[in-house]
Amino acid sequence: MAEILPIKAWRYHEKFSRQMEDLTAPLFDVVSASQREALYANPLNSIHLSVPLGDDPAGAAKITLADWKTKSIITQDQLPGIYVYYQYFRLPGEEKEICRKGFIAQIKAYDWDENVVLRHENTIAKSVNDRVALLKETRFQSSATHGLYEDESHLLESYMDKAIEDPIYDLEDYQGVREVLAVIQDAAIIKRFVRLLKEKQIILADGHHRYEGAIAYRKDMMSQSVSYKGDEAYNFHMMYFTNALDRNLRILPTHRLLLNFDIKESDLLEKLGAYFTIKKLNDVEEIEELILHKQWAFGLMIGDQAYKIRLIPELIDMMPKGLPEVIRDLDLMVLHYFLIDKVLGIPLEAQRFSDQIEYERNLRRCLNKVSAGNASFAVITRDIAMQQVLEVCKSGYTMPQKSTYFYPKTLSGLLFASVDEEEFKFPYEMFQ
């Protein structure tokens, strides 16, 4: 099913190898304002390609890219490779170090209806448009999206373990995660990766906006082609692949901040009472513990008060008709339908365009924004199980936007992939 190829990667010149912690950056959708300020201060940081500044950000990235190529700040590997990418991390409260194992390659940017790459959540339209503009101007990808494949036998792990013994980079990132990158350029081993993935569907875990941008770019280029063959550079997209059946995959919750609602606490609670049971909490720190393992339960922060709210169970049958059970019963679907649609009046179909919904992973930042009056109130959610993600993808439906936060996030700037035809071309048939 999935056609993948090794990458003729662009990377920072080897003279910068010891500076990679200063040259890499968080993904564009998780860069905080303070992080951006520090990163932009370094004229060679990869953020200038991934989240460019100015009135014409995509044009600025194009100029920067040309300058970096001319000055050999970044150079292209002459041989394509499968880039093994391991991330070592600890979650708060856990002593054991975890390693998420994966590899970076390029995959054909399949449209959703081709049923090869499956999505699990909706996107935010403006973010997709930004990614399309950047790709059209630069023909360059500064970060990999994250895809999942299912392999019970873990057939590729031994090759990855061997490669990671001789890393290109070994550094600590902004999350405190140890990031290790290595490369496999042995054609016989690369064939094993290509052939295994050819039998798989890919579940898009992270990077829906960038992937949709790649689809749009491919369609645009195909429409202009007079002799489309299918192996042109614009068909392909850089992706980080991990095994969905790996026990070290972690999904963290993403909370909702609701902005610019002129509503009193008492009025909000009255409206919520039509759908939810409400329990006032003595301590905001209780929120995460009280909603853990409880279906359709959420935390609510408004003013200096905290509440636990939980859907009245018999109301679940009010959900839109025709939804499969796996979608209907999702916590986040309940949240977006009953609270954001019914209580706040933002219809489901309009929510991905709304500027009144903001997404935040950190509980403390949610509290601070509400306390400072930068958000009207916050809704605290719990994590979603990997099995639910797989079931949603295979159902053909999608979850609300920002439903999952696969941790740790991948890092931008470790390597780059070009979809410029001259830089892309290689006899890739040798890997089939």
From TrEMBL:
Domain of life, source organism: Bacteria
InterPro entries xrefs: UCP033563
Alphabetized PANTHER family for the sequence: DUF1015 DOMAIN-CONTAINING PROTEIN, LMO2823 PROTEIN
Protein name as catalogued: Uncharacterized conserved protein, DUF1015 family
Species this chain originates from: Belliella pelovolcani
